[in-house]
Amino acid sequence: MNLVGESVYLRALEPEDLDFIYEIENNQALWEVSHTQTPYSRFLIRQYLENAHQDIYEAKQLRLVIVAKKENKAIGLIDLFDFDPKNERVGLGIVIVENQDRNTGYGTEAVALLISYVFEFLNVYQIYVNISSDNEPSIKLFSKFGFEYIGTKKAWNKVGTIRKDELLFQLINNK
Question: Which pTM was predicted?
């Protein structure tokens, strides 16, 4: 499977990604998206990277680095989680770290590459995403690919003192 697009490619985690992952996992501005509540140590991230070689069928998840080809620079992460081969479904999440790399098409291309991989090589029937109701860029991104809104989890996530609804979107492989 070719996970290379025009402007980005997706690659497996490498030990050299320690600092990049450390920055993402400890960036409090991203905690709402990742449901993180406490910082991660370099030691824990190093352990995670040592075990990142596990097959998706074993780990039930896959994390890939999004790399901007022009600069050969890691700009984000794209994840598959809750992989359920019996029911042929998987969750998808994406984060582009820096504001200047958002709304550039990088996220769209990364999602397109991963959707192709999921449907063609993992033989998944459906992909789902969970999006905060106020995250318009993500709603727009996934709607572009035909993800359909299928429900709202009311007051699902507490962010500070505010409770936010989480929307559930689903893409069915009709091929």
Answer: 0.90
**Phi (first) and psi of residue 62, to 5 degrees:** -150, 125
pLDDT band at 36 (very low <50, low <70, confident <90, very high): low
Express each pLDDT in 160-172 by its tens digit.
899 999 999 999 9
The CA distance from 86 to 76, in Å, is 29
> Minimal CA–CA distance to 5: which of 119, 146, 115, 170?
115
d(CA 11, CA 63): 9
Residue 101 in tokens = 């790399």
**SS3 sequence, 87-125?**
CCEEEEEEEECCHHHCCCCHHHHHHHHHHHHHHHHCCCC
Edge-first strand listing for the sheet containing 8-12 = 8-12, 62-68, 73-84, 89-96, 126-132, 162-172, 148-159
